[in-house]
């Protein structure tokens, strides 16, 4: 039987760690191994991990960031496949069996699946990621600079031989974090991607009480765009040196551009909103109009909503920006409409 490792990368997430480990141990695929890499936690994570005894393999290392944890895992693993599970996320029962069927039926480098978004307490929000499915040949689009729709780290299973062509990744500077960027896009340069179009796990978002323009957990909205650009530079260097591929100097990704859109226009005066649209919106609009993953209906709808930000009514503009940039804000808008209908 082919083996797969579920590698749980943890740093100071004692509160959520047991749920992640338990979800990995509950998989029904017999060839599943569970490994926890603790990146120098200072809370009670180590004691919790040790309580599992021989049911999990544990690696305790000095704090070096997520990229260093991925580097360690890729170097030491001897399984044929791997899932990197963030320690605050959860896998549903049976996910490994479904993933392994995909690997056995096709020679793909990665199998990805949808993740339900949960709040900090583990409650379902009604949102999920990603919202679009990529083609199997993501390499062709990456070579044109398009980042394909992918779930965050926990929604991806990799062929280890593909990861070994990308990792290790430099660990300095911005590369303490964002290891899944290199795994997600790097392996797609090596081989095809298969997609399971239903939710097989949960992605925990830690700020859901009052959704604003920020959605992802790892980085603040004003920091994330710069980090993505620097990681693209590193990925280009890795692709050139190890795969003999020349990626374009810049990339296109709506998730990236909407971060600029949100951070620039949210709660901004009307003059700034018009100025940004007139002089700085080219890449944002391009990732809508030329988006290879979207239907015409979705493109037109997003363009229409974006245009509402130019109206001289700040509450509407801010609402639209939240709606575009944050799936949780969309769910909140729907819930508010439902409450309004019931009240009348």
Descriptive notes:
The structure is a single chain. It is built from 14 helices and 9 strands. The chain has helices at residues 14-25, 45-50, 66-76, 95-105, 138-142, 160-163, 179-188, 224-243, 254-265, 270-279, 282-289, 296-307, 314-325, 327-343; strands spanning 4-10, 32-39, 57-61, 81-86, 90-91, 110-118, 124-129, 156-159, 193-204. Strands 1, 2, 3, 4, 5, 6, 7, 8 and 9 form a 9-stranded mixed sheet that branches. Helix 9 (254-265) crosses helix 11 (282-289) and helix 9 (254-265) runs antiparallel to helix 13. The N and C termini lie far apart (60 Å). The model is unreliable at 332-344 (pLDDT under 50).
Quick summary of this structure?
With 344 residues, the chain is of the alpha/beta class.
| CATH superfamily label of the largest domain | Spore Coat Polysaccharide Biosynthesis Protein SpsA, Chain A
Number of domains: 2
Compute the gyration radius: what is it? 20 Å
Reading the helices and strands in chain order gives: EHEHEHEEHEEHEHHEHHHHHHH
SS strand fraction: 15-25%
CATH class of the largest domain: Alpha Beta
**Got a strand count?**
9
Tally of individual helices: 14
Distance between the termini: 60 Å
Main sheet, how many strands, which sense, barrel? 9 strands, mixed
What is the name of the CATH topology of the largest domain?
Spore Coat Polysaccharide Biosynthesis Protein SpsA, Chain A
Q: Name the CATH architecture of the largest domain.
A: Alpha-Beta Complex
Give the helix level as a range of percent.
Answer: 40-55%
Structural class comes to alpha/beta
């Amino acid at each position: 039987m082919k083996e797969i490792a579920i590698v749980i990368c943890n740093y100071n997430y004692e509160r959520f760690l047991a749920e992640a480990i338990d979800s990995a141990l509950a998989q029904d695929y017999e060839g599943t191994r569970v490994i926890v890499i603790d990146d120098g936690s200072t809370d009670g994570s180590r004691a919790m991990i040790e309580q599992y005894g021989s049911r999990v393999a544990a690696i305790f290392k000095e704090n070096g960031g997520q990229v260093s944890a991925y580097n360690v895992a890729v170097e030491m693993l001897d399984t044929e496949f791997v899932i990197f599970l963030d320690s605050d996320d959860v896998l549903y029962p049976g996910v490994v069996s479904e993933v392994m069927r995909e690997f056995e039926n096709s020679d793909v480098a990665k199998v990805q699946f949808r993740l339900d978004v949960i709040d900090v307490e583990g409650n379902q929000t009604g949102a999920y990621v990603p919202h679009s499915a990529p083609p199997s040949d993501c390499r062709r689009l990456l070579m044109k600079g398009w980042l394909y729709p992918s779930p965050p780290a926990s929604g991806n299973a990799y062929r280890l031989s593909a990861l070994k062509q990308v990792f290790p990744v430099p660990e300095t500077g911005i590369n303490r974090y964002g290891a899944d960027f290199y795994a997600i896009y790097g392996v797609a340069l090596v081989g095809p991607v298969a997609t399971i179009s239903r939710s097989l796990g949960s992605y925990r978002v830690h700020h859901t009480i009052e959704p604003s323009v920020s959605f992802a957990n790892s980085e603040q909205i004003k920091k994330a765009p710069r980090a993505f650009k620097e990681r693209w530079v590193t990925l280009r260097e890795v692709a050139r040196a190890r795969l003999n591929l020349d990626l374009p100097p810049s990339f296109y990704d709506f998730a990236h551009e909407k971060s600029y859109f949100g951070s620039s226009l949210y709660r901004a005066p009307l003059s700034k909103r018009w100025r940004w649209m007139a002089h700085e919106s080219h890449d944002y609009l391009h990732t809508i109009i030329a988006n290879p993953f979207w239907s015409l209906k979705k493109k037109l709808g997003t363009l229409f909503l974006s245009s509402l930000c130019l109206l001289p009514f700040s509450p509407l503009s801010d609402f639209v920006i939240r709606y575009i940039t944050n799936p949780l804000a969309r769910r909140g808008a729907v819930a508010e409409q439902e409450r309004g209908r019931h009240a009348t």
